[in-house]
Design brief:
By secondary structure, this protein is an alpha/beta fold. The protein contains ten helices and ten strands.
């Protein structure tokens, strides 16, 4: 049996649907910690519990550390007591880097988290790495970049709404490269880890699409899917950054955090996990995955 903890969100729903095709899956909420007893007879535990978004700007530092750090301890303790041999803990690339990097980030790069989210995710990683893992058990810590797919409500949806309404993209002056991962490729990695758990060592692994892609390229894909011939607008970077700062105070579609995610460089290397599991090619290319996600918005 595979137990998914905190699987009520976008990733969890897709993952549960796929894993149910080949195994019994139990999707467990940790709003009540007593539910941790449900993993006792599991063979695999996948932890998706965490706090990432604060849409109402009300979360405290304590909220992040409770969800992304304190709960990890509780989950680990339950995993050790259970029959499960494999614990897959889904962290985030924010635990490593949030400021951006043009070089492909590997797992041995010194972490540089900046936000409460990134720092609390890193704290969870560090705690797990310090534990003495029994010989019959493994812990795989995954750091994905932004995961997208049908049902995604992130920045891709915002871009799609903008372009599909015929509004010119105003940030074309920013030229960047970012790593993403489609939900199809995310699920593929999870399945490969479960199947190849005897081949992979405990530790941290980056998962991402094989190639990075620019925001301007994403805009062009949206235009292609929507059959729109809309010119891009090259607003001065200084003006855009000023508008984003105003968005930090007023409810504008753009703020400094969203601007950074849409325009900065953040490229990952997935070589370590592909080598460990003998993966040659992922199911979808970065462009194919984005086209699938954008078509889902259209439908």
């Amino acid at each position: 049996m595979i137990t998914i903890l905190g699987g009520s969100g976008f990733i969890g729903k897709h993952l549960e649907k796929d894993l149910k095709l080949n195994d019994h899956v139990d999707n467990v909420s940790l709003r009540d910690l007593a539910n941790l007893s449900k993993i006792q007879d599991s063979s695999v535990v996948i932890n998706l519990v965490g706090k990432a978004h604060d849409h109402n700007n009300e979360a405290t530092e304590r909220d992040y550390y409770y969800a992304n750090y304190e709960l990890v301890k509780e989950i680990y303790a339950a995993f050790i007591k259970s029959e499960a041999a494999l614990f897959i803990h889904v962290s985030s690339i924010a635990a490593l880097e949030e400021e951006g990097s043009s070089n492909a980030l590997t797992e041995d790069v010194t972490p540089n988290p900046q936000s409460w989210y990134g720092k609390s995710k890193r704290a969870g990683e560090e705690w797990l790495l310090k534990q003495e893992i029994p010989e019959n058990k493994k812990i795989i810590i995954l750091r994905p970049p932004m995961v997208h797919g049908p049902g995604d409500k992130g920045n891709l949806g915002l871009l799609y709404k903008l372009i599909s309404k015929g509004i010119p993209y105003p940030l074309a002056s920013f030229d960047n490269q970012r790593s993403f991962i489609s939900i199809d490729n995310f699920i593929f990695f999870i399945n490969e880890i479960i199947k190849g758990q005897n081949k992979i060592a405990s530790g941290i692994y980056h998962i991402s699409d094989d190639t990075s892609i620019s925001t301007n390229s994403i805009i062009n894909i949206i235009k292609k899917v929507e059959n729109k011939n809309i010119p891009n607008v090259n607003l001065p970077k200084g003006l855009v950054k000023l508008i984003a700062k105003v968005g930090d105070v007023l409810p504008l579609p753009l703020n400094t955090i969203r601007l950074k995610k849409m325009t900065s460089n953040l490229v990952l290397s997935n070589k370590k996990i592909k080598t460990a599991l003998n993966i040659i090619k992922l199911p979808l290319s970065a462009e194919e995955g984005l086209i699938k996600t954008i078509q889902s918005f259209k439908n």
